[in-house]
Design a protein that fits this description.
181 residues, alpha+beta, HIT family, subunit A, 5-stranded antiparallel sheet, 5 strands, globular
Length: 181
């Protein structure tokens, strides 16, 4: 490495080497705050008061809305949340459960049309013990899956490579979302 001092690591920034680096600076919030960054506030109650772009909201219904997961398992990982602050599915009204179901079906169609995925993981983690990151506010996960999306990175390195920025994913899904009647 001509002209580069190995004693000064600042000179090594950007120097090609055998390592491939995945830069995921958005994860630093999660790392620094731990798995429960919203102990004192509810992001799902705050999101509807923000712009769709700022809150990563893809679609709004009467009783529930759809937004991107800020810490996604895969590109296009959506959440369907009721506006009302409830923790468990059996606390939802019939109108809320019907709209959550309808928005989930629409989300599946939109993701499939935009992302050409091969399948989905859909589910709700009810309570902290069940793995809910934000247990106080009900939310359903819709995770697109591709035949080859499980490789050595998540299995060995506990790292997920996401090919698109969240704002780009939100824009493409929101654009493909059907207009409300």
């Amino acid at each position: 490495m001509d002209g580069v001092s190995l004693d000064d690591p600042g000179h090594l920034a950007g120097v090609p080497d055998e390592f491939q680096r995945l830069w995921t600076p958005h994860r630093m919030v999660y790392i620094q705050n731990g798995p429960q960054p919203h102990r004192d506030s509810c992001p799902f109650c705050a999101a509807p008061d923000l712009s769709d772009e700022e809150a990563l909201i893809v679609a709004r219904g009467e009783h529930a809305y759809v937004l991107l997961n800020l810490f996604p398992y895969n590109s296009g990982h959506l959440l369907v949340c009721p506006y009302r602050h409830i923790a468990l599915y059996d606390e939802a009204t019939d109108a809320e459960t019907a709209e959550i179901a309808s928005l989930t079906q629409t989300a599946m169609r939109v993701i499939r049309s935009v992302s050409k995925n091969d399948g989905f993981n859909i589910g709700m983690n009810q309570g902290e013990v069940a793995g809910a990151g934000i247990a106080a506010h009900l939310h359903q996960h819709i995770v697109p899956r591709w035949a080859n999306d499980a490789n050595f990175l998540p299995i060995i390195a506990k790292t997920k490579a996401l090919p698109q920025l969240l704002g780009e994913v939100r824009a493409s899904l929101a654009e493909a979302w059907p207009a409300s009647d």
